[in-house]
Design goal:
422 residues; Immunoglobulin-like; 7-stranded antiparallel sheet; 22 strands
Length: 422
């Protein structure tokens, strides 16, 4: 690309000097570079947005083919300068190809304007030639595993001068199903033109057999064009989203102690028995973590026990007991329980995540299911990332329009729907 633009810049600067001309050799090199770049542009995902890209690109290829043929038949691949009409068309091709490249990158909405300019350039150059001439191609993308019948339209002039007309794809000839002096229509069964695995476009040509001159000499004229091959799945996509999810925020361990005591046994040795209850709730609007309760101390003199009646998020309840020594005037009983626990509250943190990649089609929408709401907190779409078949990364944001894809959110289910824009 840089090589071409440098070459174009040098040539365009030279046009400021009326006497400056381009040699046949330099022109042929530049035209080959243009062919390579335009062929790549036709096969990009841009061509799915509007067929005008492919149609315009094929007309540029047609113009370069005509000019190369004319140069080779006159001055050839030499240092001789182009003839005036050749130089004029060469200048136009340089300008049109540069504008074509700029429009694809920055002003796709103006593609129809460049199409008209290309057709006009072809008309101006060919208006005096008594032979079949093409002014416009209509070559929609060929979608793999989807296109059943492929339709090609070619518009121009003097088609009725031809004795035989055909397009040739992969060595096979296809004659028009309809023809007039200004339009040709071809219908092709897609099963007849299966591409090879490594191909991303078909190289095709239009062939005209006609007679010309006083003695009606047989002549053949052919012009190349490209049929872009587009996969049914134009890329793969993933959805990036955010969702607030609950998270427990714990306190440090809180310690709680209670004890129990009795007086001495009577002269008969009857045991004295006492209990101490505990019953409390969490503080500060928090909740208990019942699983965090941990006995850190249990001591007793003579006999005693402890129990928990309730260990829930809202309440910790239980009791401890103690007994005096079972003999006359036996010593008083004593017991002590210490346990720790944690309280927690719920906070919400934003977590970022993404879905698995899915193949995305230019035909049918693709649905991405996002997680269900949690505590009424719904997932929020951040953006959709698409990696296209022609190695382009496209970012879709709901609030920003995109010429290739549309993204919508189901307001009930939060599903994200991605579809082709057209």
């Amino acid at each position: 690309m840089k090589k071409l633009f440098l070459l174009l810049l040098i040539m365009l600067l030279s046009y400021n000097n009326i006497k400056a001309q381009t040699s046949g050799a330099a022109a042929l090199i530049a035209l080959d570079e243009i062919d390579a770049i335009v062929s790549k542009q036709i096969n990009s995902i841009d061509n799915l947005v509007t067929n005008a890209i492919g149609n315009s690109g094929n007309m540029i290829l047609s113009l370069t083919a005509r000019l190369k043929k004319d140069i080779n038949e006159t001055i050839g691949n030499t240092d001789k300068v182009l003839r005036e009409n050749q130089q004029n068309l060469f200048n136009q091709i340089l300008n049109l190809s540069e504008e074509f490249n700029l429009i694809i990158k920055e002003r796709i909405g103006e593609i129809d304007l460049i199409s008209s300019k290309i057709s006009q350039a072809a008309n101006d150059f060919l208006v005096k030639k008594k032979e079949p001439n093409i002014f416009k191609f209509e070559t929609p993308p060929f979608i793999l595993d989807y296109t059943k019948e492929y339709l090609i339209k070619i518009k121009g002039s003097s088609f009725d001068r031809s004795e035989s007309i055909a397009i040739i794809i992969n060595g096979k000839r296809y004659e028009p199903v309809q023809s007039s002096h200004v339009e040709l229509i071809f219908k092709i069964d897609s099963s007849q033109i299966k591409p090879k695995l490594e191909e991303n476009y078909f190289k095709a040509k239009v062939s005209f057999d006609y007679r010309s001159g006083l003695f009606k000499k047989e002549k053949n004229k052919s012009e190349p064009f490209i049929i872009p091959i587009i996969p049914l799945n134009v890329g793969k996509a993933t959805v990036f989203y955010e969702q607030e999810l609950p998270e427990r925020r714990y306190t440090d361990f809180i310690s709680y102690s209670c004890d129990c005591s009795t007086g001495a046994s009577n002269w008969k040795g009857d045991k004295r028995h006492e209990t101490t209850s505990f019953n409390f709730n969490p503080s500060g609007g928090r909740l208990f973590d019942p699983n965090s309760i941990n006995i850190t101390e249990w001591s007793r003199r003579y006999d005693g026990s402890y129990s928990f009646d309730h260990k829930t998020e809202q309440q910790i309840k239980g009791e401890i007991s103690c007994y005096s020594k079972g003999k006359p005037f036996g010593g008083g009983g004593f017991s002590k329980l210490t346990f720790g626990y944690k309280e927690y509250d719920i906070i919400y943190k934003i977590y970022k995540n993404q879905t698995a990649y899915k193949e995305i089609s230019s035909i049918n929408p693709v649905i991405f299911e996002l997680p269900d709401p949690v505590d009424s907190k719904r997932p929020n779409l951040s953006y959709v990332k698409i990696l296209t078949y022609d190695n382009r990364e496209i970012i879709l944001i709901p609030s920003v329009s995109n010429i290739f894809f549309k993204v919508n959110i189901n307001p009930v289910t939060d599903d994200v729907v991605v579809r082709w824009a057209n």
